[in-house]
Amino acid sequence: MEIRNFCIIAHIDHGKSTLSDRMMEITGTLQKREMNDQHLDMLELERERGITIKLTPVRMTWKGIQMNLIDTPGHTDFRYEVSRSLVACEGAILLVDASQGIQAQTLAVLYMALEANLKIIPVLNKIDLPSADPERVSQEVMKLLGCSREDILLISAKEGRGVAEVLDRVVETIPGPTASGEYSGKSNGLIFDAIMDSYRGAVAYVRVMNGSFRKGQKMHLLGTKTAFEIQDVGHFNPKYVSDPVLSEGEIGYIVTGAKNVRDVRVGDTVASAPDMKPLPGYSEVQPMVFAGLYPVEADDYPDLRDSLEKLALNDAALRFETERNAALGNGFRCGFLGLLHLEIIQERLEREYDCDLIITAPSVLYEVKLGVRNPAEIVRSSLLKTDEPSVARISNPADFPDAALIEEVREPWVKLEIVCRNEDVGAVMQITQSRRGDYKGLTYFDADRALLSFEVPLQGIVLDYFDQLKSATAGYASMSYEHLGYRAGELVKLQILLLGEPAEALSTIVHRSEGHTVGEIICKKLKDVIPKEQFPIPIQAAIGAKVVARETVSAYRKDVTGYLYGGDVSRKKKLLQKQKKGKKRMKQMGRVTLNQEAFLAVLKRS
Fold it and tell me: How far from each other are the two terminal CA atoms of the chain, in whole angstroms?
């Protein structure tokens, strides 16, 4: 049987999952009574937010040809998963909303597809909407791909109009899979996703490159150097359907029986012999954004730990380790692929596991080059370590070593692409350059839409950048980013001092040029929320020995002279002097208790 392996490239909410539903209906993969909206989006959260979080494959048959579709996520956070899915295919459908046009995240995935030499089929969706403008959007697609108008298909996935023509175009233009012929009598395949089945262990989603896989065969994972015996093979319908054999060029699943999904990593090669070459492109998924997760009630800490362990079984990208915070108690330092990944984990913990959470401000991973050979002597065990013996990776400001020991600090930078209206270009440039962004280029799709390119520190866009971008552009802008690596910068630890003593829970890492501004904001917020004492409380923001901002919480003033009914003024002065000495002694012995309210106020810096 002939095979076609393809995926759908689209921005969030451009109709990717709806098109998948219509394809399954038209090909008879599922009956209409078995269907529901966005059928391949298995999580309730996916359907509610209209986004694809976990990719889902499905096998269909159209005019006697086996069609393997991979419904991939469209968001930048899941870039690595998408790149592995693209390598498992020979072609891709570029799906564009006929009312919105090309968006930033569509472009990001399209460039990856072109790098993988996939055959692209341009399709305009939602032509039934009153606001649809197929003429304008067709011009954008023609300019982007260099194709002709006849190559672009116009469809309405919701109504099912034009979907059969898309399937015909897939059969006509996307080539069938071919084997490399490098390994005679041996088998290998690419793992493009893996999940944890509560009954059968880790299940690998595989594109077979050479040979075939059968139940009972002994296989090797070349990246993690582990061996296992295949317990079952089959294809997706979209549920598991067992097959006697998974053959060359097919997409299906292999039940490995592994007890941990981390053993079966995305991008790894499953092979029949341990001496075979791994397929190119494999790398370990690295978290980019870090945040602390704490239970609202201290007694809920064990429940939060159990919930994170269960989530990590199905999400190999989620990393966490225990952490202690002076204000919030025991919690976990967690690593995420990006802000959307953080939001998803938070919502799943709250909905599926009924956890009440406090989440600290997201931070990124810094590389700190130290003047010592063994950074472990100074910095406690972190989520990620580096191969360089004198370099430590730090995500928690409390772990930041003394400035005297630091030779250099590096921070992650990203290539940021923003698609916006022509009238919003100035506002976008102003917001991005205020986050230390370097302007790189401007391209116009047409008279009304532009693509802006920047290079910007990741820390500059992880807090409230996206919210500000949407506000400044009336919701029309879309953004996508790609990691560029680490660059050295003037990064310093901003410490908050209460009564002259550092409050590590409030420390943060900032660029030296932003130290005064951020320090001033934090000090003002703390002044409003820290309760008054019998003595004044100085709140200082300091970089090293230099104080860059200060506020003071004034003391309660007790009227000690109120009971005096007259007499010489010296009696009054004597009492006031006595009070002054007492307050001075109280200040020396006093301590400020940092409550949750004070800590949470600092997290929101805007």
Answer: 60
Residue 383 resides in a domain: yes
Task: Specify whether the CB–CB gap between 124 and 153 falls below 8 A.
Answer: yes
Residue 217 backbone zone (phi > 0: left; psi -120 to 50: alpha; other: beta): beta
Residue pair 313/264 in contact (Cβ under 8 Å)? The answer is: no
This prediction has a pTM of: 0.75
- Do 152 and 15 lie in a common domain? yes
Please tell me whether residues 415 and 298 are part of one structural domain: no
The answer for residues whose C-beta is within 8 angstroms of residue 56's C-beta and 6 or more apart is 40, 41, 42, 70, 71, 236, 238
Burial letters 312-322, b for 16+ CB under 10 A, else e: bbbbbbbbbee
| Domain coverage including residue 554 | 492-603
**Confidence tier at 289 by pLDDT (50, 70, 90):** confident
**How many residues are recorded in the chain?**
606
| Number of domains the chain contains | 5
Beta bridge partners of 9: 94
Cα(18)–Cα(556) distance, rounded to whole angstroms?
64
* Alpha carbon distance 380, 502 (integer Å): 19
DSSP at 286? -
Please tell me the least confidently modeled range out of 361-365, 501-505, 582-586.
582-586
521 and 416, same domain (yes or no): no
Q: How confident is the model at residue 39 (pLDDT cuts 50, 70, 90)?
A: very low
Is 261 in the same domain as 410?
no
Q: How confident is the model at residue 41 (pLDDT cuts 50, 70, 90)?
A: very low
Question: What Å distances lie between residue 351 and 307, 451, 516, 521, CA to CA?
Answer: 11, 37, 39, 33
Q: Are residues 144 and 53 in the same domain?
A: yes
In a domain, 183, yes or no: no
Listed residues 488, 523, 542: the one ending a domain? 488
Taking only the tens place, the pLDDT of each residue in 128-168 is 889 888 999 999 899 888 889 999 999 998 888 999 999 99
Asked, as a colleague might, if the bond just before 389 is cis with ω within 30 of 0, I would say no
Distances (CA, A) of 416 to 176, 189, 419, 439, 443: 35, 33, 10, 10, 14
